[in-house]
Design a protein that fits this description.
Layout (H helix, E strand, L loop, with lengths): L1 H13 L11 H15 L5 H23 L4 E4 L4 E4 L4 H10 L5 H10 L1
Antiparallel strand pairs: 1-2
Protein name: Myb/SANT-like domain-containing protein
InterPro entries: Myb/SANT-like_dom
Organism: Sesamum alatum
Length: 114
């Protein structure tokens, strides 16, 4: 679903249906709901889309943090994984405690969408 959501939102943004900041015009959300419901045979609402976007924002913040603020970690774009050297293992363990409420699958989904 995330790949389809990203595709339709990219199309809506190209059509000028994204407002400043994190908000979307109502017609963008409706087009997204219509597209996903027809393509994936779901029964989504605008609120479902808004909630998914909030989740994306949280996941993205973790990946972005690893890329920009945690210089001892790197992101392997090809392997879609975070790389930690054995010298930095204790730093990684500390970082994992901080972001413990995110599962590996959630972070992986965010990396895949990049």
């Amino acid at each position: 679903m995330d790949n389809h959501l990203a595709k339709v939102l990219t199309d809506q943004m190209a059509q000028g249906n994204k407002c400043d900041g994190d908000t979307w015009k109502p017609q963008a959300l409706q087009a997204t709901v219509t597209y996903l419901n027809s393509k994936l045979h779901l029964n989504l609402t605008k609120d479902d889309i808004k909630n998914r976007l909030k989740i994306w924002k949280k996941y993205y913040s973790v990946v972005s943090d690893v890329q920009t603020k945690q210089s001892c970690f790197t992101l392997d774009d090809e392997g879609k994984m975070i790389v930690v050297t054995s010298d930095e293992w204790s730093s990684w363990a500390t970082y994992v405690e901080v972001v413990a409420n995110y599962s590996c699958e959630q972070i992986k989904a965010t990396i895949d969408m990049r």
